[in-house]
Amino acid sequence: MSLRPKEFAILEVHAVIGWAMCGAIVAVGFAVTTEQTALIAHAIGAPIIFTLVSANYFRSFGFTTPLQTAICFVGTVIFLDFFVVSLLINRNLEMFASILGTWLVFALIFASTYLTGRLVSTRNKTEAQVIA
């Protein structure tokens, strides 16, 4: 994967937007409901958010393959969760002990991004063939 700095920035901005929207679900959830309910809402919302974010990325830019994008998005989320949420905000690593709170969500973000990329890429190829 060889991206120019601008392309890499566009890819990362999409990943950070998805991460921030997931963070909003968690923050609001913790403020208005139980931790368990907030984490369930996060596990439901994260793949929806990343489906929308990745669909926008693939339709508008698509500099990377679905697999590369899924790895980049999940890597960015893990990096930000570790350094920002765990170390700066929570000041502990307890969140990584939660399957529902982290590991399941990471897997769902990966899957939704990858599958969206495959779907959009297939659709774009079909549309290109019809136009040609």
Give structural notes.
- By secondary structure, this protein is an all-alpha fold.
- It has one domain (5-131).
- It has helices at 5-32, 35-60, 66-90, 99-131.
- Helix 3 (66-90) runs antiparallel to helix 4.
- The protein is elongated, with a radius of gyration of 16 Å.
- The protein starts with a helix and ends with a helix.
What are the main properties of this structure?
single chain, mainly alpha, 132 residues, 4 helices
Task: Give a brief outline of the structure.
With 132 residues, the protein is an all-alpha fold. Helix content is 85%, strand content 0%. The chain has four helices and no strands.
Structural class: mainly alpha
Terminal Cα separation, in Å? 28 Å
- DSSP helix count? 4
Determine the strand fraction and express it as a percent band.
Answer: under 5%
> What quaternary form is this?
single chain
Q: Major beta sheet, specifics?
A: none
Gross morphology is elongated
Measured on Cα atoms, how large is the radius of gyration? 16 Å
Query: Whole-number average pLDDT?
Result: 95
Number of domains: 1
Secondary-structure element sequence?
A: HHHH
Low-confidence stretches: none
Number of strands: 0
Helix fraction bin? over 70%
Topology, pairings included?
Layout: H1 5-32, H2 35-60, H3 66-90, H4 99-131
Helix pairs in contact: 1-2, 1-3, 2-4, 3-4
